[in-house]
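Q: Give me the 3D complex with phosphoenolpyruvate.
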Amino acid sequence: MPTTDPLSTNTARNILTGLRAIMATRGNAQIKLNKVVNTIAKAVSSEVCSIYLRRDGVLELFATRGLNAEAVHVTKLAMGEGLTGYIAKNVETLNLDEAASHPDFQYRPETGEEKFHSFAGVPIIRNQQAIGVLCAQHVEPRRYSEVEIEAFQTAAMVLSELITSAELVDDNLAEETASLDNGANRLSGLQLVKGKASGHAVFHQPRVKIEHTVAEDTEAERHRVYSAFDKMRDQIDQMTSQAEFGVGGEHEEVLETYKMFAYDEGWSRRINEAIDSGLTAEAAIERVQQHTRMRMRQIDDPLLAERMHDLEDLANRLLRIVSGQMGTAAKMGLRQDTILIARNLGPAELLEYDRRRLKGVVLEEGSLTAHVTIIARAMGIPILGQVKNIRQVVREDDHLLLNVDENVVFVRPGPSVEEAFDAQLELSQKKRAAYSELRDKEAITKDGVRIMVNINAGLRDDLALLNLTGADGIGLFRTEFQFLVAATMPGRAGQTRFYRDVLDAAGEKPVIFRTIDIGGDKPLPYFQTSDSREDNPAMGWRAIRIGLERDALMKVQARALIEAAAGRKLNVMFPMVAEPWEFDQAKAVFESQRAYLCGQKKRLPSQIRYGAMLEVPALAECLDLLANRLDFLSIGTNDLTQFLFAADRSNPKLAERFDWMSPAILRFLSRASENAARFEIPLGVCGEMGGRPLDALALLGLGIRNLSITPASVGPIKAMVRSLDLGQAKREIAAILKEAPDEPRLRLEQWANQHNVDLD
Ligand code: PEP
Ligand code: MG
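A: Here is the predicted complex, encoded as structure tokens.
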């Protein structure tokens, strides 16, 4: 990392002392700006110093020393026009001994600048956008020293504060840049949750807004930055020592570099020097970062660009620690049309957001069956995953058009893109209207087979969707969602009330309550699920494994469910059952609670049916042993796939590797379906596979008659079922199983198209 000449500190300190004095004096902003240009010009011995500010979408000359005074408030440049416009548009510093040699050079005769050869300019930045430009010019061709450039950058930071507090620039720059900036981007990614949304970018971990740049007490600022460094280094140490990263491999190298940056003495020294010059800790970190950004940009090396990414991450982390702005955007006032930008999210983090304001999510990582994806699907929030560099390309408040149906997000779109997007949106709304017409129609195939189409639910808001979609019932109620949204462990009375509300809302329609499936990628912050960190949490201490060991948790839930279902039917399902004894023990917990409540003369459910999820492959080998004990079985294709392929469902690198239509899955499901029929165990599917029309078609062809899916899929699945001849589909699936074609998905899709099956 670059080191600094102590002179830099002095030059910057001189400028800062001057600026501080100017800011403290009385007088209007224009007078102050006039003084500022004089002070800076003197400090760096430059013949010209000028300030351009953005007003009404253009850069206007606000103050100058050295150019013609008549040009002030007369000379105006568009963003991107001339060297000044170039700096503002690209938020970049220029330092040229011969200004005319730059391709963007232009000169304005009214300023009288033709005699000046050298030119240096730095952007005046607010919220990562240029609100103006500070520049210096000189008759002699000279390149400004690094010391001087750093001093300009420091001055520009302080000016940014002065300018915004004096309200000299347009308040809402975001909209403006969107229309001015023709740097619109079309980024593609992986479809995680279908849908479209138009909105504005909000970072899950917002960038810190620097309110004050000039320090009152330099020692105090130094202390703040010291302890922030300590905290940050602790965090990085913890992160790098986490067992989940394993030993060896590419990631280790990356983490080591990250750690090396965190401990870099050059970096901390430069921040300290910036503090010495009179900046606050926040401003010092940002100033050094701006300078590093500029240096890195001059080096055209992709590897270095990657490293810059790490450095930005670290600087932002340090800023958040020092400013105490540690919360996520969920904790702050969220705008009405939020499209959330994050590297990745956990399910609990997503649930913290107000779903009415959250219109979409774009992730740098993400995978199809991670719980965060499932929750977003349940919430009806489109997610585009695996969008590389989204956090680099997008700025807070940027206008975004998210079209996950086509795997793209448009950043700062132009009018023609918007027009096309609106037309597509209208089309989707028409489709949705057509689906809502299916609400009261049954899912019956063309050859008369009734398919049960249930929804997966877990949140109070989901209950309304039961009637809205016209589903047959709730085939999977994920009770752990209630635990995930709570700040503390939900008590028995609260659980009872909630389950009763669910049953009330469902009325005559059946509900299957799954006992809590915590652990894996659904840790509860207030409940230590394991004494030590697990290397493979998805295969670790989770779901029924926790339930049986910490049986107080299960007892409380059993009692709450039984009491809530007084006088009604209760369906209970256990997750992650691998062997029959686990099912027996879990059922015994419920039965003992039933006996207890019976002894208490409490009203009991009219019937309790016990089922298991088939998501650990081992259970499929034991269906004969469970023949007379199991009231129903539901295949959880999300976990089942992860265990069959030994592929972590939340690992973004594996997101597209395995297909639900591949022979291993189809054969497995086919055998499970045959065995369930042979042992007379009612069978359904409640994983995400069932919510995709083509995959659901395959399931029906394999003998499945009961699906539980995400509510948004009820319309498309009903439409598919009603356009299907099941007899023909079964024959096609049998042929695919037998022939194992290279591309089974393509083959089934072609067949469906030939037979006019509605696939959305
Ligand atoms: C599954 O694993 O397929 C399932 C439905 O359960 P969950 O996604 O909640 O683990
Ligand atoms: Mg599961």
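A quick observation: The chain is about 45% helix and 15% strand.
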